[in-house]
Amino acid sequence: MSDEGGERSVRPHERKGSLGRTIRAVAWSLIGLRKGSEYEQDVQRLNPLHIIVVGLVAVFLLVLGLIGLVNWIV
Questions:
Q1: SS (HEC) of 42-60
Q2: How far is residue 40's CA from residue 1's CA, in Å, rounded to a whole number?
Q3: 48-73 and 19-31 helices cross at what angle (nearest 10)?
Q4: Whole-structure pTM over 0.70, yes or no?
Q5: Per-residue pLDDT of the chain (74 residues; tens, 9 = 90+)
Q6: Cα 41 to the center of its chain, rounded Å
Q7: Closest alpha carbon to 61 in 18, 25, 30, 17
Q8: Taking a C-beta distance cutoff of 8 angstroms, is the pair 55, 26 a contact?
Q9: pLDDT on residue 32
Q10: Rg for the chain (alpha carbons), in Å?
Q11: Which pLDDT score, from 0 to 100, does residue 27 have?
Q12: Exposed (0-12), middle (13-18) or buried (19+): which is 24, by Cβ within 10 Å?
């Protein structure tokens, strides 16, 4: 497949992204601080499946942390 620029577009499942970059993208997204330019880079580089998995793990850890905090306080 090629787009208007003549470059080959990469399918989402063929994208290679580092684990660190995926974790960083998910963390900044959970906080709500994200630059538009970095978002565009992530869309081009990161695998959507990896983002979903890291996001689910992050939310699970957040919930466990909140439960632990509440149990520690009470």
A1: HHHHCCHHHHHHHHHHHHH
A2: 20
A3: 60
A4: no
A5: 445 554 555 555 555 668 888 888 888 888 877 777 777 777 788 888 988 999 999 999 999 999 999 999 98
A6: 12
A7: 30
A8: yes
A9: 79
A10: 16
A11: 84
A12: middle
Distance CA 60, CA 54 (A): 10
Tokens of 29: 């997204």
The whole-number pLDDT of residue 41 equals 79
| CA distance linking residue 33 with residue 18, whole number of Å | 20
DSSP per residue over the chain, as a string? -B-TTSPBPPPGGG----HHHHHHHHHHHHHT---HHHHHHHHHHS-HHHHHHHHHHHHHHHHHHHHHHHHHH-
Distance CA 53, CA 61 (A): 12
